[in-house]
Specification:
The chain is an alpha/beta fold.
């Protein structure tokens, strides 16, 4: 019987609370924080991206140009980045518990180049950290999930991919042969957890601490 041997985690809104990041974006663009948060939620409900929310505020928005200008204006600030203060309260605890239970634990998500160093600086209890920038491919591209399987060194069905989105996490990971956990966290997590396709996930969880329980009691069962 095939069992789960590795867990691979998305980053944004799975491990990292992006509230402070988007608050700084709101300040940067000169709109109330609640306004930008509402627009991001609206884009999530419409199946559109966070960048579409930024372009609603500023139609001529150019991400790379804004990054460059922001670095010039605030070279020592956090800007679009995150640090250990942005970890969800259960993140370190759950990662450690899973590793202590004997599971291989890997982080792999859509993140810019500096995110890998930021995550490494947190000294998280994980076996490896990878980003889309490092790999040159982003979710939901199947090539991203092929890289997940490769770096884990496991059969796809031995890997549980954990994320907050159906479109970027659950559905493409499932197509790659992995098992999946949908986390009801962040705007996408709550919205996607209420969609019919949430049934495609092997398990839907409300927090990362739930993973030890669902793995121990056999709720993530081999597919037949």
């Amino acid at each position: 019987m095939t069992v789960i041997r590795a867990l691979v985690f998305d980053v944004g809104e799975t491990l990292i609370d992006e509230t402070r990041v988007w608050s700084r974006w709101a300040d940067r663009l000169g709109v109330p924080r609640l306004t930008l948060m509402g627009l991001i939620g609206g884009m999530a409900a419409l199946g559109r991206s966070q960048m579409d929310a930024l372009r609603l505020v500023r139609p001529d928005f150019d991400l790379e140009a804004e990054f460059a200008a922001w670095r010039r204006d605030d070279p020592s600030g956090m800007r679009e980045n995150f640090d250990a203060a942005d970890l969800y309260p259960d993140a370190r605890r759950a990662l450690g518990a899973l590793r202590e239970a004997g599971y291989q634990v890997v982080l792999a998500g859509n993140q810019p180049p500096q995110a890998g160093d930021a995550l490494a600086a947190m000294n998280l209890p994980v076996d490896a950290i990878h980003t889309s920038a490092e790999w040159g491919v982003e979710k939901p591209d199947p090539a991203f999930f092929a890289k997940v399987v490769s770096v884990a060194g496991r059969e796809p069905e031995e890997i549980l991919y954990v994320g907050d989105r159906l479109d970027n996490d659950v559905l493409p990971a499932r197509r790659a042969g992995m098992r999946t956990a949908l986390l009801r966290r962040g705007p996408w997590g709550f919205l996607h957890g209420d969609l019919p396709d949430a049934a495609e996930a092997d398990v839907v969880i409300d927090g990362l601490d739930d993973l030890i329980t669902v793995l121990a009691d056999g709720r993530v069962r081999p597919r037949v």
